[in-house]
Every structure is written in C-alpha cells, then in structure tokens.
Amino acid sequence: MKAKEFELSFRNPEVRMYAAIILPGIVIGLLIIIFSNSEFQFTYAWIVQAVSLLIFYCWRFFYKRKKVSNNS
Fold first, then answer.
1. Is it the case that residue 14 has pLDDT exceeding 80?
2. How far apart are CA 40 and CA 44, in angstroms?
3. Which of 11, 28, 36, 71 is the 20 to 30 Å CA partner of 63?
4. What is the pTM of this model?
C-alpha cells in the first residue's frame, strides 16, 4: 500500500491554513519577545504559538474527518 504524496504548494489547503495560522503566530510571538517589557515575555510568546498550533491542528482534524466522510 503506497502512502499518499504530500503536495507542498498553496494548492494544498493544509499548507494554506498553516501559512495563515502558524506563521502569524510565530511573528506575533517574536514581536512579543522583542518589544515586551514583561518578565513573562517568553511565556506569553509560547502561549501565542501554542494557541496557533492548537487552532491549526483542530482545523486539520475536522478537515480530515470531513474529507473522509465525503469520500465514503
């Protein structure tokens, strides 16, 4: 059984959502680290990135489930 190839282009909806959710989360986290005067700046940046990962993987879970149910 051959595994399905992963297409790394913007035609793939998973890549588009990754770029739309994860990359801004990384940029916001870096901006928090650079410009925040709080002693918890790394914690806040980590929380922003963790939330963006959580949102992406929740979306991916529902997307895969919908895709499987449409194929059945």
1. yes
2. 6
3. 28
4. 0.82
